[in-house]
Amino acid sequence: MRHFDLVVIGTGSGNSIVDEAFAAWDVAIVEKGVFGGTCLNVGCIPTKMFVHTADLAAGPASAARFGVDASLDGVRWTDVRDRIFGRVDPIAEGGRRWRESGSANTTVFSGTARFTGPKTLDTGAGETITADRFVIAAGSRPVVPDVPGLAETGFHTSDTVMRLDRLPRRMVILGSGFVATEFAHVFSSFGVEVTLVARSGALLRAEDDAVSARFTELASAKWDVRLDRRAVRAERVDGVARLHLEGPDGPEVVEAEELLVAVGRQPNTDLLDVAATGVALNDKGRVAVDEFQRTSVEGIYALGDISSDYQLKHVANHEAKVVRHNLLNPDAPVASDHRFVPSAVFSSPQIASVGLTERDAVAKGVSYVSVEQPYASIAYGWAMEDTTGFVKLLADPVTGQLLGAHVIGPQAPTVVQPLIQAMSFGLDARSMAKGQYWIHPGMPEVVENALLALPLKDQR
């Protein structure tokens, strides 16, 4: 068996670890699919390119209230699709070519890897290898729920739905999280009739309750949203997918030409059989790591979706930097910083959040004050005629330190960024609001007003 200094499994964020600092190392990289991981190929990058296009397609429908008469002539689906993947696919292929030919000390194996013993890996490419150090960065894949008849009916996941040959007239989306709601926005903006089936009583339940409730209200006005439904059976009749549901009013059926399953993602730990090398899993089936991204086996690290609760590309990138440092400096390791991890939902309206929700604060017994500041309270909100967006802040009532920030409305991921910065560097609400200029009339004024409205004990 060939022996390496380092083996990296997965070419998402893990691929960024090996650079010129590893020139003296004998490195193997193992990838079961295309290079670039979830984000590049089936996640954040192509989906946001679809979202931007969907925003453009949705624009004419809201133009009349501004005195602009506009209409959508149509969406050239194949042109939209091919523009996006015409850019993404060459990047993935170029990454593979660069790794295969760009470095004499790096060997690429193409296959579904599986551990067969302590620090021993079947590459899935006809060769078993060993190494002193491993980085497990093999990501996750969509969950397929156990619904009778689903496999026979045929369905899409986020891995396949963006490459449809044609737009359907109707689409049923099973799920209520960020993947489901982003694709609901994309396809409905392109003229598809969307039915969204949620197991719970609200959409985006991981968000703050006020945000989840507002989004559910707005989504229900645009899409056919079925809450508190359980999928009990699927079938395809005359080319139409039929999903049988149980709900508050008894059994019902929803149907469409295409069915999208978007109920979550699962780590690829089972494909890798990490237990065979002694690596422990946590109660969620992910690789268990400490603050230095070390697993239970010395010399084996893990990062990204396969080990992280956050399932976010920016978290995986941060963890990859930590692993890189710790591989090169094992006697002076650095820890990952997961204190203030932001997230965003690129649906319509957009959502962004960081820190504690009000639900979290209550459950943890954290003392807090909160405020909700509407977009409609600022001049730019008037310009957009936005009557539904708001910024919600939670802060320590004495120190003014921000505990959580939640935004629903136009450009929410941009609006929340200065709040992430304030939390990360310990800037209190009053200092943030009063210690700098805020451009008028700009969208960040909603943040300024929210900060000033917090009912802190020190009202100076």
TrEMBL record:
Binds 1 FAD per subunit. Keywords: Disulfide bond, FAD, Flavoprotein, NAD, NADP, Nucleotide-binding, Oxidoreductase, Redox-active center. Coiled coil: none annotated. Residues 4-320 form the FAD/NAD(P)-binding domain. Signal peptide: none annotated. Disulfide bonds join C39-C44. It holds the Pfam family Pyr_redox_2. InterPro entries: FAD/NAD-bd_sf, FAD/NAD-binding_dom, FAD/NAD-linked_Rdtase_dimer_sf, Mycothione_reductase, Pyr_nuc-diS_OxRdtase, Pyr_nucl-diS_OxRdtase_dimer, Pyr_OxRdtase_I_AS. The keyword Flavoprotein applies. Its EC number is 1.8.1.15. Residues 341-450 form the Pyridine nucleotide-disulphide oxidoreductase dimerisation domain. It is an enzyme of class 1 (oxidoreductase). GO terms for molecular function: mycothione reductase [NAD(P)H] activity; nucleotide binding. PROSITE patterns: PYRIDINE_REDOX_1. The active site is at H440 (proton acceptor). Its cofactor is FAD. FAD binds at K48. NAD(+) binds at G175, S176, G177, F178, V179, A180, T181, E182, G264, D305. Belongs to the class-I pyridine nucleotide-disulfide oxidoreductase family. This is Mycothione reductase. It comes from Actinosynnema pretiosum subsp. pretiosum. The lineage of its organism: Bacteria, Bacillati, Actinomycetota, Actinomycetes, Pseudonocardiales.
